[in-house]
Amino acid sequence: MAGVMDIIKKRRSVRSYTGEPVAKEKIERIIEAANHAPSAGNAYTWKIAVVQDGGLIRKIQSVSPGMLGRPAAILALCNDRKKAIETMGSKGGELFRFMDVAHAAQNICLMGAELGIGSCCIMSFNQDAVGALLEIPPQYRVDYLVALGYQDRDPVAPKKRSVEEAVLSWTGG
Length: 173
Ligand SMILES: Cc1cc2nc3c(=O)[nH]c(=O)nc-3n(C[C@H](O)[C@H](O)[C@H](O)COP(=O)(O)O)c2cc1C
Prior knowledge:
It is a single chain. This protein is of the alpha+beta class. It has one domain (12-152): NADH Oxidase (3-Layer(aba) Sandwich), CATH 3.40.109.10. It is built from six helices and four strands. Helix 2 (24-35) packs across helix 4 (81-115). Flavin mononucleotide is lined by residues 12-13, 15, 66, 68, 120-124, 158.
């Protein structure tokens, strides 16, 4: 069985897909993983809009320059800004909500990797336009997109830093 580090190292940003759909049960498993991500104040101010409709995916892509290839699904991580401010104050509305979706997205990508499903986190998209396409309630904001699909080729593995390069300082120990 693969350990956490194996899955972490296996995950890559995938930007080229086979077109095979991702089964509902696998997307549910991925969302379950997101639900176990850390959340500021355990507030979970985000919800996920799942898009598997090919036409809507294409429309979202038309306002998302950073979304490459033709993913089988898009998970739009949408935050309830009102709830974020009510539960976490101004920092909740400006910062924590983004940190929360980043943690959730990491779990999504790692669960995807375990299930053999490629993923790509996307910030290069028009928030207002995607929100309008998804017809999300007004208090929600689309804060992050994760594209999902089966990869059609091995993605390029970018060079990663060594432990030494990542450490700024280390006191004690
Ligand atoms: C906050 C954030 C925004 C990103 N936005 C995009 C994007 O708009 N389009 C894209 O193709 N990749 C995007 N990525 C993926 C990065 O380009 C990718 O993680 C990086 O190149 C390292 O490659 P790896 O994920 O395979 O390790 C984003 C990643 C993060 C964390």
